[in-house]
Design a protein that fits this description.
Order of helices and strands: HHHHHHHHHHHHHHHHEEHHH
Number of strands: 2
CATH class of the largest domain: Mainly Alpha
Strand content: under 5%
Shape: globular
CATH topology of the largest domain: Growth Hormone, Chain: A
Radius of gyration: 23 Å
CATH architecture of the largest domain: Up-down Bundle
Helix content: over 70%
Number of helices: 19
CATH superfamily of the largest domain: MFS general substrate transporter like domains
Length: 491
């Protein structure tokens, strides 16, 4: 019993939270395996049917589908309770997967494209609904402990699914991939049903996803117009939108290049699926370890501005390596950039920077980014991919790709400047004057409510580690003694 208590204490889970945390953990565990099975199966099938060139049309369709399905989600799904909406999504997606089993790909050449597109849509909307759903059971305080635990479940599910694909490498995934995908989808019902009568008294939310706003077509247009105005009301929002758009394009181009390499290196779907299974197992295991033990420390030591430049700089560096050595190793690095580095660096840094932005407009800007900007970047990426393989030679394609990477880096630098200006604004109202401690009634931290790790960003330390100019350094100097020993040593 003592070991059991110590185990839950290590995981930061309280006894009264187990009744909803365990089902939520298994829900996201099964979601992680569901995403991975669908990704490996549909990706290998798609590549063998269309090649990497097919990604240009795919990304255009996918971006448009995300926007249209997002409108449907707001018009219809938000009118249901979160639980009913979740059951409906799982039921529809699972039924479509099972139904596709009855279709012969030789008689339906569109099926690989539809399955690959469906996997993206399943992943996006199930993940979106999961994070809406869990906050019926979590509040702000316990979410900082429980959400990282749930995220580990999703990553662990992906690891198991990748290992499963590798273990079945001797069999053609066309024979069993859809069956495994459908069974995995059906299993998602189990934790949802276990959560039926579980509702902690401290939970927040009404169980309904709606926000009380007009969900009609006219209401959505007014909301979109307001979100566009809000985006340009602050420099940190404007630079964030520009960076998300540029990064979305780099993501699609990176997929084109690494899929080109993999499709040539592994001539059959069986070999490709087996390789992707091994990659997913190794990369997700590495990602999980880095998430738990390294990422937060790295961001703290390097500082937010430096960490924010890691993602676009990595794209540029890996692309240079790919241009020099266009082989499987370079393809693996590009895939790690696209599938894993975004979770390791891009997501937490994005949350930290957005936490320093004006809070009263944050929700609208995030909605605009996720629902409009990112899909439009995907469409733009598809157009550029078409241009690269249709109209440009290899050298010109590489030059265009690197240009996009440098544009993303420029946007990151602009976002850094806006972030530092935003912190200066917080500094003017949040820092105590010299000689007055925070216990004197002045709060000197910004709570990262959107940070899954529930961390706190100390404004003073962030500004010191951000290479402040002389004018800001003069303002900060009286607070040097309040820094942690690590930050003082670094400064």
């Amino acid at each position: 019993m003592g070991k059991r208590k110590a185990g839950w204490k290590f995981l930061s889970i309280h006894r009264d939270e187990l009744k909803f945390t365990i089902p939520l953990f298994f829900l996201y565990f099964l979601s992680g395996s569901f995403y991975t099975v669908g990704q490996i199966y549909s990706e290998s099938l798609f590549l063998k049917a269309y090649g990497a060139q097919g990604l240009s049309r795919f990304f255009i369709y996918n971006g448009a589908s995300l926007i249209l399905c997002g409108i449907f989600y707001n018009l219809f799904m938000l009118r249901l309770t979160l639980r009913r909406g979740y059951l409906l999504l799982v039921g529809v997606f699972t039924a479509l997967i099972v139904a596709s089993r009855a279709i012969d790909p030789r008689e339906a050449p569109w099926l690989p494209f539809a399955l690959y597109l469906g996997n993206y849509l399943c992943t996006f909307f199930l993940d979106l609904h999961f994070f809406n759903f869990i906050f019926q059971y979590l509040d702000l305080r316990n979410s900082k402990r429980i959400v990282p635990f749930l995220m580990g479940g999703g990553k662990f599910g992906g690891i198991i699914a990748g290992l499963l694909f590798f273990s079945l490498a001797h069999r053609n995934p066309a024979d069993w991939g859809l069956v495994l995908w459908g069974i995995n989808g059906a299993l998602l019902f189990l934790p949802l049903l276990l959560l039926k009568k579980v509702r902690p008294s401290g939970g927040r939310g009404t169980g309904r996803a709606g926000t009380g706003e007009d969900a009609s077509g006219a209401g959505l247009l007014k909301r979109l117009e307001r979100e566009i105005r809000v985006t340009y009301s602050s420099s940190i929002f404007s630079w964030t939108v520009a960076l998300v758009f540029a990064v979305s394009i780099t993501n699609q181009i990176s997929e084109y290049y690494f899929m080109s390499v993999f499709n040539q290196a592994f001539p059959t779907q069986n070999e490709l699926a087996s390789f992707l299974g091994v990659y997913t197992f190794c990369a997700d295991l590495l990602t999980l370890g880095l998430q738990l033990f390294a990422v937060s420390r790295f961001i703290k030591l390097a500082g937010v501005p430096v960490a924010n430049g890691i993602y676009p700089a990595s794209f540029i560096g890996i692309m240079v390596f790919f241009i020099t050595f266009p082989a499987v190793t370079a393809g693996v690095l590009l895939r790690f950039f696209r599938k894993n580095l975004s979770l390791l660096i891009r997501t937490p840094v994005f949350n930290i920077i957005m936490a320093a932005s004006p809070r009263d407009r944050l929700a609208e800007v995030k909605s605009f980014i996720n629902g409009i900007v990112s899909p439009l970047g995907m469409v733009a990426g598809g157009v550029l991919i078409h241009f690269i393989f249709r109209s440009l030679d290899a050298f010109q394609g590489y030059a265009l790709t690197l240009t996009v990477g440098f544009c993303a880096m420029a946007c990151a630098l602009g976002q850094n400047r806006a972030y530092m200006r935003s912190l200066r604004g917080h500094l003017s109202t949040a820092l105590p004057p010299p000689g007055l401690s925070a216990s004197g009634g002045v709060v000197d931290t910004v709570s990262l409510e959107d940070d899954p790790d529930g961390a706190y960003l100390n404004i003073t330390e962030a500004l010191f580690t951000g290479s402040p100019g002389l004018d800001l350094a003069e303002l900060l100097l009286p607070h040097f003694r309040s820094l942690s020993p690590e930050t003082r040593e670094k400064v």
